[in-house]
Amino acid sequence: MSNLNRLQTNDLEIGATDAVQQHYARHVVATKPVSQRKLDFEHSRPRWLRECMAEATGVFFYVFPGIACITDFTLNGASPLGVSAFGSIFQIGWGFAIGIAFAIITCASTSGGHFNPAITICFATWQGFPWRKVPYYIFSQIFGAFMAGMLLMGMYWPEISAFKAETLAAGKPLVANGGPASILCTFPNPTQTNLGYLFLTEFFVDSYIGIVIWACLDPANPFVAATSAPFAIGLAYATMVWGFADIAISTNLARDLGTRIVAAIFFGGEAFSYLNYSWIAILVNVPATLFATAYYEFLMRDSLSKIAGGHALHESGEEGLHRHITRTGMIEQGYASAIGNGRAAQNGTAGENGLYEQKTL
């Protein structure tokens, strides 16, 4: 068999080569060649614009199905058990979970898939993400949530208007948990006046989600593949919705601030002043996620496993890794391959986003 017939591999057995040839030949419809014009157009697009659009689109994909489920649930009324003919807290949790998974699947390959200002700040703090990109990533994330809220108001405007009129006729507030504004962003129950309690609840929920996200993105974690990470992260959000949605949680600065601006446009500035709660919903996510990622970095991260898997290099190269292993005696099964993997990794180049090329989010 000629080298050409063997796909110029030379080192494959004939049976394997035949299988590869059949795989590449199995096209139902021939793919359209990529034109030079298309390549030139894509090359001319600014990278920052692609990243911003991906972050905004991803947040939109995450927020829109979640608040749509909340709208169904709120407009159609709920029983004392939290169930209506059109949904439940369980459905809302799944709306956010699947929305997050879709956001990661569709947009993370372009921007790295932060979709949360706190995550962007944590990547800049721990993983070398450029600080110069942080402001426009955060702006894009908030803009995506804002657009999700605006589109939802447009699509449900007749129903929301009728619900607003009913609420006013009944002498109930527009801005309150269960009111029209609550379809867009979080408000506490009227009895929840203890801001310290609300702060701790939000801090715990966001820390829980942050640890799960950081574990899913750890390239040394053998239990999470890149294909399963979107759904694992989505389920982390869903479990917190199922457990704590009835006592007011936000989970994401962009998700809350973007839709809260929409709520203020349609229902008044009380969307920000109600029970002095909005600062908790907007800001607590950042310190909580920083705490969660610091917890993982300082107490759970195993960077030697990361190097052993070929996902990182020692700052001093192969020589520094030799010194560390010699000094610590860490010649355990698996770690010995770190030097070889480190040498192989040096032959490639790490992308600007680094971690995202290893396990995309």
Automatic annotation (TrEMBL):
Predominant place of localization = membrane
> How does the protein associate with the membrane?
Multi-pass membrane protein
Instruction: Give the InterPro entries listed for this entry.
Output: Aquaporin-like, MIP, MIP/Aquaporin
Provide the alphabetized UniProt keywords: Membrane, Transmembrane, Transmembrane helix, Transport
Q: Where in the cell is it found?
A: Membrane
GO cellular component entries:
plasma membrane
What stretches pass through the bilayer? 52-75, 81-105, 136-157, 197-217, 224-245, 277-296
Q: Where is the signal peptide?
A: none
Annotated GO molecular function terms are: glycerol channel activity; water channel activity
Family designation: Belongs to the MIP/aquaporin (TC 1.A.8) family.
What is the recorded name of this protein?
Aquaporin-like protein
